[in-house]
Design brief:
The complex is a heterodimer of chains A (239) and B (235).
Chain A lengths: L7 E10 L2 E11 L4 E5 L6 H9 L6 E6 L4 H6 L1 E4 L10 H11 L4 H15 L14 H13 L5 E5 L7 H16 L3 E5 L3 H7 L2 E6 L2 E7 H6 L4 H7 L6
Parallel strand pairs in A: 3-7, 3-8, 5-6, 6-7
Antiparallel strand pairs in A: 1-2, 1-4, 8-9
Chain B lengths: L1 H16 L2 H34 L5 H11 L4 H12 L14 H37 L4 H11 L1 H17 L2 H7 L9 H10 L3 H26 L2 H4 L3
The chains are: A alpha/beta (239), B mainly alpha (235).
């Protein structure tokens, strides 16, 4: 295993559209094995930030630098899970196989990685089932398993458990925590404060595209320093 | 009313007797149309997927062109292919005019735009759904096209059937480039045209009934083969 692509350093990221900046001067560092939760009201730019970091969008200005910069490695060593699972119209195991193939994982390694991913996600029994016939909770579990199958250095999660039942949420959180314990850094966008407490060690609080507050999760949850973060944590409507 | 009755009786009799002339005509009809649909799918699906996912200059024009070509008049295509394949034409040396090959060429030209235009719509819809996930995996170009074509396979069967419907039902193009020569290039539609013009309405109608029946059979067979049509729609 070659060395990690982390730390990831983003400096003064800006993303402008006609109506103004959606991300406005965000800087952050993601260390190997860390777990960071991105919180903030709707429209704060959380999902957008994730997409910029993952390389799906180009920032208008600012820089994103990885420890390693070979593009093949960068693609292979990071994954993302979206709010709504997008599964291919194939079997459960073919979905994971497809991702490994797309990431150019050598063929001899794939079947072992697929088996391991299915086992961790508790989906071994369903490996030949058409992925689209799984329940929504299982589909999202498969998405997480697929994202983790290549043992990425960093996993981006964009509200992965929104509108799932508690049991599914718990199983997905377990998967994510286990991956984090194995050394995968986590960057999670969520609206669920409880989930933020359970999964995050660090918090970045976004408001209007700016990172208005950040720090260790515990400190942030107990003593938010800004008014807007306090209102958000107390369940007030922040606009 | 009387004609209709006679036609049904005649159709039944022709099928029951397995009339050799009829079987020959049906065989050629199927061979030409299926051959043309196969070639159209190879070309049209790749073209449709390309236009569906790759952004290039002039794409909007290509889409308008493909959509318009869906309504290409068979006689015009027949005439064009005739000019190409006739002795004096650029491809005259191959001596293909009035052969089943010429008919396949003409029908392929007719059906390819239909397959391409419908594939474009299907693939574009699917691409929108898969977009973020596939970009996250770094999938683009030919791999993206293959992925979308494979995942759209159930919808593409319907696209192929639409193409088959067009091919098997058209008469203008095969008439011009095939010539409706008995035992050589006579297919169902040209036979129906001929019998109608001879005033042999009952036989023409009987052939028509058989043609509709075959169309139903092909569609039914595809539905059974691709199977689970109700379930697959939700996949």
């Amino acid at each position: 295993m070659s060395s990690s692509i982390l730390p990831l350093r983003a400096r003064d990221l800006r993303f402008l559209v006609d109506t103004g900046p959606l991300i406005d001067g965000v800087s952050l560092t993601i260390e190997p094995g860390s777990s960071t939760v991105v919180l903030g009201p709707n429209g704060a730019g959380k999902s957008l930030l994730l997409r910029l970091l993952h390389g799906m969008l180009e920032p208008t200005s600012g820089t994103i630098t990885w420890q390693k910069s070979s593009s093949g490695d960068l693609r292979r060593r990071q994954s993302m899970v979206f709010q709504r699972p997008v599964l291919l119209r194939r079997s459960v195991e073919a979905n994971i196989a497809y991702a490994l193939c797309a990431l150019s994982i050598p063929r001899p390694h794939r079947s072992e990685m697929i088996n391991l991913a299915l086992e961790r996600a508790g989906l071994t029994h369903a490996r030949r089932v058409r992925a689209r016939l799984l329940s929504v909770g299982e589909q999202q579990r498969l998405s997480v398993a697929r994202a983790l199958a290549s043992e990425p250095d960093i996993l981006f999660l964009d509200e992965p458990t929104a509108s799932l039942d508690p049991v599914s949420v718990q199983r997905i959180e377990t998967l994510v925590l286990e991956a984090n314990n194995r050394g995968t850094a986590i960057v999670l966008v969520t609206h669920d404060i409880g989930q933020a407490r359970r999964l995050g060690r660090d918090v970045i609080f976004l408001h209007d595209g700016k990172d208005v507050e950040r720090g260790p999760a515990e400190t942030f949850m107990l003593n938010p320093t800004t008014e807007v973060a306090r209102a958000y944590l107390e369940g007030g409507i922040v606009v | 009313m009387h004609d209709l009755q006679t036609a049904f009786l005649l159709a039944g009799k022709l099928i029951y007797k397995l009339d050799t002339d009829l079987m020959e005509i049906i065989g050629l009809s199927m061979g030409v149309s299926l051959g043309a649909v196969f070639l159209s799918c190879v070309v049209g699906m790749v073209l449709g997927a390309f236009v569906g996912v790759i952004r290039f200059r002039g794409r909007a024009t290509v889409i308008i062109l493909l959509n318009s070509l869906m309504g290409l008049p068979p006689v015009v295509v027949g005439l064009g292919v005739y000019l190409l394949l006739s002795r004096a034409g650029p491809l005259g040396v191959f001596g293909l005019l009035y052969t089943p090959t010429a008919m396949i060429i003409a029908q392929t030209i007719l059906v390819t735009p239909i397959v391409a235009a419908l594939t474009r719509v299907v693939v574009e819809d699917l691409a929108a759904e898969y977009d973020e996930q596939l970009r996250s995996l770094g999938v683009s170009g030919p791999r993206l096209m293959v992925t979308l074509l494979w995942d759209a396979r159930y919808s593409l069967v319907t696209v192929a059937l639409a193409g088959f419907g067009r091919a098997v039902a058209e008469v203008g193009a095969v008439m011009i480039v095939g010539g409706n020569i008995d035992h050589l290039t006579r297919v169902m539609t040209t036979a129906i045209t001929l019998e109608t013009s001879k005033g042999n309405l009952a036989l023409a109608l009987a052939l028509g009934i058989i043609l509709v029946g075959i169309s139903l059979l092909v569609n039914g067979a595809v539905a059974v083969l691709s199977g689970r049509s109700g379930k697959t729609r939700y996949e």
